[in-house]
Amino acid sequence: MPKFNRENIDRKTNKPNPRSTEGLSDDQLLNRAYQTRRDDDVIRSTKRTLYDIDYAIKWYIDNEIQPQITANAELVSVPVIYANGEKWDNARRLGYLRDEKGMLQSPLIMLKRTSTVERDSVRTLDVNRQIAGNQHVHKNKYNPRNRYEDELFPIPTNVPQQSKTIYIIDIPKYVELEYEMMIWCDFTNQLNDLIDQILPYGRYLWGNEGNRYETAIGQATFEVTNTVGEDRLVRATIPLTVKGTLLSEQEARISTIKKMYSIKKVTFDTILDLDVDVFSTTTVPVALLQVSQQIFSGGAVQVSGGTSGTIDAQTLTYLTNLSDRQAVYSSATTVTVTAAAALNPVTGAAATKNEFNVYINGQYIDKAVYTWTPTNSSTQTIIFDTATLGYTIDSTDTIIINGRWA
Hints:
Layout: H1 50-65, E1 68-71, E2 74-77, E3 80-82, H2 85-94, E4 108-118, E5 135-140, E6 165-170, E7 173-185, H3 188-198, E8 205-208, E9 211-217, E10 221-225, E11 233-246, E12 250-251, E13 254-255, E14 257-261, E15 270-274, H4 286-290, H5 292-296, E16 301-305, E17 309-311, H6 313-320, E18 323-326, E19 328-329, E20 334-338, E21 356-360, E22 363-365, E23 370-371, E24 379-384, H7 386-389, E25 399-403
Parallel strand pairs: 3-4, 15-16
Antiparallel strand pairs: 1-2, 4-7, 5-6, 6-14, 7-11, 8-9, 9-11, 10-11, 12-13, 16-17, 18-25, 19-20, 20-24, 21-22, 21-25, 23-24
């Protein structure tokens, strides 16, 4: 198996290193089939980072929950900040935050991400492993090779190629993130109002547009902060559990999105020149039987000469499906067969008289000697010209009709 060559290669000055492989197959990094340029498309590389999840949670609180309290008979919107190291240390050590002028900040909501871990539900399912097949495939029919045409004012162009742009994207990593949301207010009733506004959003999808994540609200804890010479503050701490996904632009120096075009296929048609009409005889040409495996494998053969058209698997089955039926004596000139003629898959009509052979006591009978028009009904009537035949039909005669029966 070839190694994953993780070294940076300058393809203008360096050739593939044969020592980078352990077998006869090509180095996977140097496989040109997976190296389609992306500097000429407008599809941006998909990326979902921890910052995207942090932003989504904060955006949802600001724009969807929109926490407000009543202060001095007025509605006041509660600001939401994301805690950096210094702010979080002050909040934990002192129990409150001050602004640049030294004033206590209240009311205030502060978010802090405390942990990130792989989800237990997918830990044993190999979802988060970078293995072959763990990818999403998206197809885009429009591309420079297959442009749309203007139906009202068509511009003469070459026949568009049946080509689709394919983007292969790695499956994101499923993680679980823990947050702490700290809320400060001046009065307990204000804090209660904020808790009442936030709790109904538990188990909702928090985020914006396509950046949404299931969020669970944990048990809220309350405490009172008293500072010397300042007003007291009431504080609540609410844990949030967010089920998110992470996908970086590159993993192990390999892009998580790859671009390629649909595979082109070259097909070769087989054309047979037949001397006879295959629908006017019970004999199947040897040349047609020699390509039967190709036909039954899903291919088709073009025929010309005595027959013009396409022979597919259904038609070849019709031609080769020959069976015997025994006729029943009716009179000295007439016999009947309880069977229906097969339907020709090309014409849709019943098989013709030329697609059957009649034998009396093992002797082949020329078709000019009898009159019969095969139908797809259950009873066939054959009338013989006994003057031309030279004898009459007897009840002890064995009459077999071989041909294309249903």
